[in-house]
Design brief:
Strand order of the largest sheet: 1-2-4-3
CATH topology of the largest domain: Zincin-like
Strand content: 25-35%
Radius of gyration: 21 Å
Helix content: 25-40%
Amino acid sequence: MKTISKNGRTLTYRIEFKENKHTYLRVKPGYLLVTTNVRTRIGDIEAIIFKNFDSYVDRLDELSDKTRDDRISLWGKTYDFIVEKGPFTYTVGKDFVKATFPHASIPEVKRAIFGQEMSEALPDFEKAIEDNLKVLHIRILPVRIKYLRSKFGSYHRKKNEITLNSYLARLDPVYTTYVLYHEYAYTYFRPPKIRQNLIS
């Protein structure tokens, strides 16, 4: 791990050299992970970090706040988070979320809340995009809600259904709308014969 300081703030970063073509900078809890080609000069990487320093530090601070056990983010807003033992239920107040859960695994409690929030909000998202889909002769498809580790959503061609990541419940609703349009785009750009079967 190395650090870079600017304007009284410090950023911790780690560089991993791999055989990939490009350089990727990813914000992880507590540090910035850089994966880059073995031929990339460290000075070039540090120049990129320094140029975008404030943005990376702000994102690190935001991630740190979201991963705290006593905080939870729902639909782009961060709340104080209180958990007690009991059957699963939760209440969203003005500046807090209070939940009960059979055991005290904070990540599991949060995932359960995200899944519930997405399930309850899904009809509203579908209603908001339905008219635009009709213009393209696309009908509303079955949607599964699931906590995914690597993507926000996916379209399953064989099942003709969409999976949405329950993690989206942490973010501003505009991102869920975007992901839904993105997945429905896969149904539109199918071969015409297959598309006709879907909408007839």
